[in-house]
Amino acid sequence: MSALDPRVDAYIEKSADFAKPILNHIRVLVHSACPDVEETMKWSFPHFMYKGILGCMASFKQHCAFGFWKGALVFESVPGFKKHEGKAMGQLGRITTIADLPERKIFIRCVIEAVRLNETGVKVPAKPKPAKKELVVPADLAASLKASKKALATFKNFSYSHRKEYVQWITAAKTEETRLKRLKTAIEWMEKGKSRHWKYENC
């Protein structure tokens, strides 16, 4: 087995008694599949590294967890692996005993595939960004903007986030009086080309 990180030793030692054999078993399997793997601590729990992150493991009060960094790609290429659906970190579900882990051969194949993906520089496809919801402009703001060509032009040229800041500021008013004051101020500021937080933009 390649060099072990003493911080991982300490992490395992501080884990619950049920978790220690599970974490040690995972550790042995990863090192067996990738002799050149390195260990480190990221975000307060153990990670396995080889030309990037291979995977990570963690222990909790009543279960352990393990996940491959490129899990979706790993499991597509390893027959026999079944991803666990559930509320647990990683892709192996809630691990309470060694028996909850995939078979040794399958787990090692997954590690080897994770190594291959890192060696070839394959990246996990980025998740598509959710479409921005259409911003609903309240009637009173729309009417005020319509009455001021300068403010309307500014509002239209603003980014989605700047427009949203004004809408939220006005609609968050708890009284009609406050809302009217904010509406008046918003129009005055936009007539001068100012964003909602213009005071802080040059700080």
What is the topology?
Elements lengths: L5 H9 L4 H15 L4 E5 L2 E5 L3 E7 L4 E5 L2 H7 L26 H16 L19 H8 L2 H9 L2 H12 L4 H16 L12
Helix pairs in contact: 2-4, 3-4, 6-8, 7-8
Task: Describe this protein's structure.
The structure is a single chain. This protein has 203 residues and is α+β, with helices and mostly antiparallel strands. The chain folds into two domains: 114 residues, Aspartate Aminotransferase, domain 1; 62 residues, no CATH class. Helices cover 45% and strands 11% of the residues. It has eight helices and four strands, in the order ααββββαααααα. The chain has a four-stranded antiparallel β-sheet. β2 and β3 form a beta hairpin. α3 packs across α4, α6 crosses α8 and α7 packs antiparallel against α8. The chain is elongated and about 70 Å long. It starts with 5 loop residues before the first helix and ends in a 12-residue tail after the last helix. The mean pLDDT is 89.
CATH architecture assignment name of the largest domain: Alpha-Beta Complex
Query: What's the rounded overall pLDDT mean?
Result: 89
Number of beta-strand segments? 4
Strand content: 5-15%
The end-to-end span amounts to 54 Å
Largest sheet: 4 strands, antiparallel
Sheet with most strands: strand arrangement: 1-2-3-4
Q: What class, by secondary structure content?
A: alpha+beta
